[in-house]
Amino acid sequence: MKSTKNWSVLLGAAFLMATSAVGPGFLTQTTVFTQKLGASFGFVILVSILLDIVVQLNVWRVIAVSEKRAQEIANLVLPGLGVFISILIVLGGFAFNIGNVGGAGLGFQVLLGITPETGAILAALMAIVIFLVREAGKVMDRFAQVMGLLMILLIIYVAVVSAPPLGEAAVKTILPDQLDLMAIITLVGGTVGGYITFAGGHRLLDAGIRGEASLPSVNTSAVSGITIASIIRVFLFLATLGVVSKGLALDEANPPASVFQLAAGAVGYKLFGLVMLAAAVTSIVGSAYTSVSFLKSFHSRIASNEKWFIIGFIAISTIIFVLIGKPVHLLILAGSLNGLILPITLATILIAAYRFKIIGTYRHPLWLAILGVIAVLMMAYMGGVTLVNQLPQLFE
């Protein structure tokens, strides 16, 4: 019975990480890059998947072995660093959550014909209900699993209907016509950047999956999370490629919606609404849960009233969206911060992996650490370039 319970938690953590990653930005990002790079985008996806796995294995293993949350680990590496990282992640999570709420409102608008603001309020209420029930952790795990599976099935359907050139996609995934490093960095940041890096690791810790003996389970859960997000990404790529390869133009205002509509007509457009809603609501849940998990260790009152802080996080995000609309500049800055947060947090975890007072007698695999350092350097460089390029837009 215990192994069944553990498997449910491991799968729940994997789906929480994956569905946190698959938000409105993920859908648009994948569609736009496929339109730009064509079949060669398959190579970008392949490289980003490998980098994602390196990041998650490093982070989740150290969290499990140390039996501490990321901010606690960071404070042991350098006093005050955990507070700094927590502020970055909570601000980034909050900014993206406003976008997630807006995406959910758009999903409801497509499905029911209501305004995005009304839809956003309905979506927020759905997310809040999850945290009001007695066993919120279990409900959150199950909700992430069901919504994740729904997204996979719907996107596979649209990918099949769009009839993409599979042979070309397979060849260009190995031998691309062009290489877009910025696309790789964007995908990695969008899939395992900011709060998403810790969504599953903190969930496992809260569920009691910890210690060196749990590492095989932690590895399975981390790789499963990346695999789920990658399956969604690959089939969305194929669906878009099928549409683009026929010479059909995507609507610049809403690229992913036009993919579904061009591939499957009016039914496809409604399916997009359902996918967008599922992607947005699961991202709202993941963002709120993980962001508040970074605040729990700073005051006992936050830990004992966790669900109310999560609910407040969701409510404030929704109110800002309804009153102001989608704050484009805030989202731009948050996107750049995500590119910078990952190298800072991953570098901190890699240092912690070799501190006896944090991980005890555990020996972190050298090959994993080396690949982690490469990921830190890549993300630091590209994150810095992106931030420098986008900061002027904030003052226009």
From TrEMBL:
Molecular function GO terms recorded: cadmium ion transmembrane transporter activity; manganese ion transmembrane transporter activity
Pfam families associated with the record: Nramp
GO process annotations (BP): iron ion transmembrane transport
Membrane topology type: Multi-pass membrane protein
Taxonomic superkingdom: Bacteria
Residue spans crossing the bilayer: 37-55, 76-96, 108-131, 143-161, 181-201, 222-244, 271-295, 307-324, 330-354, 366-388
Protein name, entry field: Membrane protein
